[in-house]
Amino acid sequence: MDHDFKLLINGQAVDGASSFDVVNPATGKPFAQCPKADEAQLDQAVAAARAAFPKWAATPVEERAAMIEKLAAALEARAAEFASLLTQEQGKPTEQAMGEVIGCTFILRAFRDRRIEEKVLRDEGGNKVIEHRTPLGVVAAITPWNFPLILMMNKVGPALITGNTMIVKPAPTTPLTTLLFAELAKDILPAGVFNVICDQNELGSKLTGHPEVDKIAFTGSTGTGKKVMASAAAMVKRVTLELGGNDAAIVLDDVDPKLVAQKIFDGAMTNAGQICVAIKRAYVPSNIYDEFCEEIARIANEAITDDGSKQGTQVGPIQNKMQFDKVRELLDDAAEKGTVLAGGKPLDRDGYFIPPTIVRDLPEDARLVQEEQFGPVLPVLKYDDIDDVVARANNSDFGLGGSVWSKDVAKGTEVAKRIDTGTVWVNQFLAIDPNIPFRGTKQSGLGAELGEAGLNEYTQAHIVNAVELA
Ligand code: NAD
């Protein structure tokens, strides 16, 4: 690819100390070079963010908001270019890539319009207590490879509007759209406010442990999240963790299985199943189990799995070789213990393609049911009793999302309230909204992104408690 990607450090587009290949998952072949930062460049980026912080924090919020709007508008103006690059590095079909890019503009604009309000907690008898909030300082934002742009914006919007400065570190297999965004930011934001460094997994721990970093906003796997939390402990740094999930969809016995099968298929297979809140196990009552399995297998068999840049592709490749191998391993285990109704084997071609796979009759302790597959593979499990299925859905160290499907919204809502996860949708999936907080329970995370709660994560609350001098 004919584009010279650069790191962004202190407002300057700079070469890395070295560089590495970025692979297109639809071909398995390198298509671009990514600059790779060394530790000295990481230090420079952190120092730049530290130096820029006081002036940025003191910049009137309306000016910061205007710059966020400029970022959104610049992204919008080049949306097709961003979407095409996203498909090449990440694999998702162009239409989904465009959805991610446009979603970014919604997130930026939602935070452009948010303001931190001072709260009066008491004002009586000469005693006035206020809570006000100030920015934290230097934020390290670390992102994964499934939604490299949108998961960065979840952090950029609240960090910048509240007056923090940033260092962003994308995942090694999807760094390029972040670097393209850095090109926009370079011309819009003051030097040092927004820095991007890239690595091949060597710099994450140095960044989180850096003494000049005040807050870590991390999205990624639970395993890495635990390391981030441990490294934050040394200085009691503020940390937001958005981690893995193993979301259950519970179908109630009053639905039309044909209608719900299509929705559950989409919830499980969008972005080739590589969504933290993808439907990762479906529980279906025995009265409609066979019909549901037949229908979802039919949909899976008809779905087009191909290069995301080809028109009509519904399911793109798995993003990287490591994940491809992990999903294959889970498939082998599932094929031994259950019945594969659709897919089941990688496509015989270059690239990391696994067609949508539906497996029925797996035991509850199968790896595909217990672990986060993060791929286009869905186990469909049978149940007879609602208490039993709620217990099975909750029997997980994860607690990210989930869904309940019913003709009766009130009944669905009652079941949803019993699911121990940060979000449960009724009759929909992936309804993530910039104004609604998103969080995980248990080992799916700590703190929130989006909404007012997501904004507050980038601030320190202070109490001022005053009385008349007497
Ligand atoms: P990962 O944990 O392997 O990597 C995430 C990021 O952490 C990358 O940028 C990586 O370079 C960096 N990193 C690696 N080692 C580090 C260390 N020791 N310290 C700090 N950073 C380090 O995750 P992944 O495989 O890229 O992403 C997939 C996972 O992300 C899945 O588990 C998925 O569920 C989760 N995810 C969660 C959410 C959410 O909002 N909860 C959203 C998307 C993805």
TrEMBL record:
The active site is at 242. Gene3D superfamilies: Aldehyde Dehydrogenase, Chain A, domain 1, Aldehyde Dehydrogenase, Chain A, domain 2. Keywords: Oxidoreductase. Pfam families: Aldedh. The keyword Signal does not apply. Residues 18-463 form the Aldehyde dehydrogenase domain. InterPro entries: Ald_DH/histidinol_DH, Ald_DH_C, Ald_DH_CS_GLU, Ald_DH_N, Aldehyde_DH_dom, LUC3-like. It comes from the Bacteria. One of its GO terms (molecular function) is oxidoreductase activity, acting on the aldehyde or oxo group of donors, NAD or NADP as acceptor. Belongs to the aldehyde dehydrogenase family. This is Aldehyde dehydrogenase family protein. The lineage of its organism: Bacteria, Pseudomonadati, Pseudomonadota, Alphaproteobacteria, Sphingomonadales.
